[in-house]
Every structure is written in C-alpha cells, then in structure tokens.
Amino acid sequence: MAPRRLSPRAFVKSASEQRAGGAWLVYGFDEYVKTETVRMAARAFIKGADPRLAITHLVGAQTDSQEILQSAQSVPMLATHSAVIVHDLHKLAPAHKSRLTGHLASVPDTCLLICVGPEEPDRRTKLYAWFVESGRDIACDPLSPAQAEGFARRRLEELGASADAEALSRLLSLSGPDAGTIAREAEKLSLYAGSQVTAHDVDVVSGLSAGCTPEDLVASLVAGRVPEAMARSRLLRRTGFDSGALIGRLCGHFFDIRRAVACGSRQSWQMAGALRVSRSRAEELQAWLRSAGANGIDLALAVLARAEALTRSGRADADLVCDQAVLAMAQAFAGNAATAT
Asked: I need a labelling partner for 105 at 20 to 30 A (CA). Which of 26, 129, 141, 146 fits?
C-alpha cells in the first residue's frame, strides 16, 4: 500500500508537533504556497529557537551532498531541533544527487531537511523516487476555486478586512487561483479600502495588478475618476516613484496634451508628424484628448506648476503636495465631464 501523503497544511501541522523530522521534498506549480509551506514548516519545527541560528539555507547550485548532510546532522547551540532548507534541489550536481539519495533515510528526527524541488520532478530519478516511495513528497498544486475563495477570505481577515460575496467573486475573477496574486491583491485592498472591501474597490485596486504607470494615472485624471486617480498616485509612490519625479512626469504628459490641442490634427499619423512623436504616442494623446477639455488641461498645467515649485522649494511635504495636486486635477476633470453631460 502506498504511504499516505501530507497536504501542505498537514505538513506544517506535523512540523509544529515535531513529528515531521527527516528529509522531505516540497515541489509544485504554486510558488507562493511552496514558499510559505517551507517557511512555516521550518519555523514551526524549531519552535522557540532563533531562526537565524536554527535554520540553514543552502542552494543546490552552490552546495554538495556532504555539506547538506553535515548541516542536517548538527544541532545549533541552545536548540534541540534544526531545519535545513535546500533551495533549487534540481540544480544539485547529478553525482551529489546520487550520494545524497543513499543517506536521506539516516537524517535524524531532530532535523527537518526540506528539499525544494521544481514544479514537476522527474520521478524516474532515484532522488525524487525515494521521496515519492517514502510518502515524503509535498505537492503544492494551484488552488481549486473553493480553496481560492477560502484563502482570499482568510488573507483579508488576517489583514483586518472583510469582503462580501460579490467582492470576492470579482477579486478571484481578476487574480485567478494563484495564491501569490491573491495575497498581493488582498494586501493592496486592505490598505486602500480599510475594513470593508466592496466590488468597486476591487475594480479600482485589482485593476492595477498588471502594473501601474504615470500614463495610467493621466488616463484616470482626464477621465475624472477621483478615487482611481488617488489610488494610482499612491501606488506609484509605493512602487518606486518619489513625489517630485511623479509631478515632473505628469507635467511632461500634460504639456504634450496641450501641444496636441494646438496641433489640431484629427488623424494620429498627422499628429505624429506635426509633434515629431511616435504613432503610438500620438494615439495615446488622442485618447486622452477625447476625455479632457482645453480648460481642464490649462488648469492641470497650472496646478502642476505650483506643485513643482513647492516641492523644489522644500517648504512643504512633497507627498501632501502631490496628493493635493492629483485630487485638484481629478476633481476639475470630473466637473468638466459633469458639465458636458
């Protein structure tokens, strides 16, 4: 009879009860589940010991079987248990894989040796076959729809937020069953929406998951979408843009929009020639012009000029100046859209 295999959650629980000593293989297609399973199992196994001393990290391409086995057979000072994590096991040299296979059964119960394998290990290889035949392989497969919903709900609760059925359904339709994507989106939603996440919040925040650029922010501004513009501005600053640089980029974009208005060309190829920009840039400017009116563009340039002067002077908080500028521009374009309709 084939040995009963543990799920990632059961493996972590077994490690916390210190029943999972010895060598294990963790593999699978979901990198987030794989990483979290390894991290939680190792910390649970050593319990109160200092992770910096009781957990040893090795990399397959930079180690050998002797170092792995020596690390597994030693217990650090002031600790009763240790954990050894071998990352990228598939990059270990073939000769060392063969040597390691013959000693895996002798790894002491006081050590948790976790070998992190590829997405789908070749079970014809003796090393992987040993784990499979011993029932010591932990598969981290993608989440099922039911598991993904439960994971999203739990992750939001851990962050102090909750979501109704519609919001969860919208989140999962955008993120798919990938646990890493769900976890990142849940963190962004908790920061943006607070304790109660709605479907609208998911549309605004999760719509940025593919990446947010200053061009996306301009599109939100000229369309007068105030919450979306504020969210994109803050996301850009959290992911590498400082406020002064972001204001400068916006100045450049709105100056080009003003030049496009003055050009008066209706065809993108004519605008590209007149402004000496690429065809794709001309099409982008045309898309912005369909939402923005001339008065709104002039106001945006005036707001940005004041914001740039304030940030350069150093007399005001740059983040606050950027927030106020984005809010003023978005509200102005929203007012223009309301008047036009």
From this structure: 141
On the 0-12 / 13-18 / 19+ scale of CB atoms within 10 A, 92 is buried
CATH number at residue 253: 1.20.272.10
The label of the residue with tokens 């007399």 reads 315
Residue 262 CB-density burial (10 A; 0-12 exposed, 13-18 middle, 19+ buried): exposed
Q: Return the CA Rg of the chain.
A: 27
DSSP assignment string, 210-266: T---HHHHHHHHHTT-HHHHHHHHHHHHHTT--HHHHHHHHHHHHHHHHHHHHH---
Q: pLDDT for 106-115, tens place per residue? A: 888 889 999 9
Q: Is residue 3 part of a domain?
A: no
Distance between CA 256 and CA 277 in Å, rounded?
10
**Could you give the C-alpha distances from 124 to 88, 115, 129, in angstroms and in order?**
18, 17, 6
| Contact (Cβ atoms closer than 8 angstroms) between residue 326 and residue 229 | yes
Highest-pLDDT range among 80-89, 163-172, 178-187, 227-236:
80-89
| Cα dihedral 35, 38, 42, 45 in deg (nearest 10) | 130
pLDDT per residue over 79-108, tens digit each?
788 889 999 898 889 899 999 998 898 888
DSSP H stretches of helix in the chain: 8-16, 31-46, 51-54, 65-72, 94-101, 126-134, 145-158, 165-175, 179-193, 199-206, 214-222, 226-238, 243-263, 268-275, 279-291, 294-313, 318-340
- Residue 255 lies in domain: 214-340
Same domain, 131 and 153: no
- 272-303: b or e for each residue (b if 16 or more CB lie within 10 Å)? beebebeeebbebbbebbebbbeebbebbbeb
